[in-house]
Amino acid sequence: MNPVLTPEEMRNIDRITIDSIGIPGCVLMENAGRGIVAHIIKKYGAIDKKNFLVICGKGNNGGDGFVVARYLYNLGANVTVLLLTKKEQITGDAKINFDILINILKNREARQNLKVLGFKNFNMLHKFPKFDFIVDAIFGTGFTGTLDDFFLKIVKWINSQSIPVISIDIPSGVNGTTGSVENDAVKSNLTVTMGFKKTGLLIGNSVNYIEDLKLVDISIPRFLSKKFKFKTYEVTLSDIRNIFPVREKTAHKYSVGKVLVLAGSVGYTGASALTSLSAIKTGAGAVILGTPDKVYPILARKLTEVMVFPLDSTKNGSLSLNSYEKIQKHLKWADVLAIGPGISTNDETAELVIKIIYEFGKKIVIDADAITILSNELKILKRRKSKQLIITPHMGEFSRLTRSTVEEIEKNKFAVSREFAKKFNLVLVLKGAPTITVTPDNRVYINSTGNPGMATAGSGDVLSGIISGLFAQGLNAEDASIAGVYLHGLAGDIAKLNLGIKSLTATDIQKYIPDAIKLIERGKYNC
Fold first, then answer.
1. pLDDT for 332-360, tens place per residue?
2. Using CA atoms, how far apart are residues 152 and 141, in angstroms rounded to an integer?
3. Residues 275, 168 share a domain
4. Euclidean distance between the first and the last CA atom of the chain, given in angstroms as a whole number
5. Nearest of 342, 444, 435 to residue 395 by alpha carbon
6. Of all residues in the chain, what percent are helix, strand and coil, respectively (each to 5)?
7. Would you call the peptide bond into 393 cis, given omega within 30 degrees of 0 as the criterion?
8. Under a CB-based contact definition with an 8 Å cutoff, are residues 334 and 305 in contact?
9. Is 527 contained in some domain?
10. What domain range is 221 assigned to?
11. Which residues lie closer than 8 Å to 181 by C-beta, 6 or more apart?
12. CA atoms of 142 and 192, how far apart (whole Å)
């Protein structure tokens, strides 16, 4: 797993690297600048004779910008450095690299291709010659809050230029911890971050401002990352391949996972079909769908591989409390219970759902309407018998569970999620862009697959089925969730390649589950 750090954690590692290991801060800054330029060349090609505007603030982000400017100049580019602060405010390692630029400019020949300009007024922006690239070195990952009027105008000017923008560490205006953007931020075509990815680069609104994210090794000793007990990770293909279930040659349908899905109601048959069939496609050996008898004929015709059983209905066409005894037989059979998709929030159905979740002692995946039902009966989560429970809310459902607004959660997503998972001793799969998996011991796993086309009705039902299928094959709650989310996103990425984003449906995601599994097992991700 690749650690993902908060800005504070990154500062601590930098400090230890400098103070205890003895690598000077200016060396780390030099490595950062050199690595950033290498990524620029890798993405955009030769930079000889290209015109760069490097906009620098007063902190270490600006210091990285000074190093970048020097390397660009040395490689033959025409470089203009625009300083958004007074020279006297530049200190530390940033000042060392600023002074180097000033010393270079003492050479008359250098002044033909390198300029350092102090900001005078906004008119000077409009008088600049045409640049080929802009480098954003205004704020680093420590930025929080809103851009003041001065910087807001600078950012809006940057975004109005129809040329590639490279941001150092994080687009200026993005909160480095939460990824939130209060009023605006630089829209970056290439963001190059140092040492480790930061939380604010992967969550929140930041994803709308980052087109391409790259990482630079600045020579922080590898053992330091192991010394710190990080709690946040980005999930990679190799991680999933290592935990993915392997089927034995002597396997039979009942040895590779039995899933009971309780789902569906009048008008909501699609959710139950998507969940149960996705569990089969993920590798579960046998899946039973228990659904109201009023919709049973529809689902029995629709589903071939899934065993569909009719259960007593309420007058509204949802599961009746009278069906409890019939369900008990199937619960004894099942390794995993998946409950909630399309089940409705009918009062009688809600009573049935609460009773089942409270009494079932094996693995449970709770989704959709069952989550909404639980939001009014949270005490059941603490009293339940199951020791392995996964809950898969989207942000609206999680808002109901936590009694917090979506906006409040977004501003402090990791903390709110960790508190909930720990309080109720469960694995939380919080769906979104990206989806995160949170464990009771406060670890957060950020998914790295998926695309905007997956924001479509039924996508979450497919995810519930995938997680349930992996859960039934012997994975624990944590691994089934992490692997299920990754597989779901990967299937969506394959669907996007073949169908595009706007036309992608939940059925398309389901269709490509087998292809995604093959990619995981081969260890190759080429989407």
1. 999 999 999 999 999 999 999 999 999 99
2. 17
3. no
4. 20
5. 435
6. 45, 15, 35
7. no
8. no
9. no
10. 2-230
11. 173, 174, 175, 204, 205, 206, 208, 209
12. 15
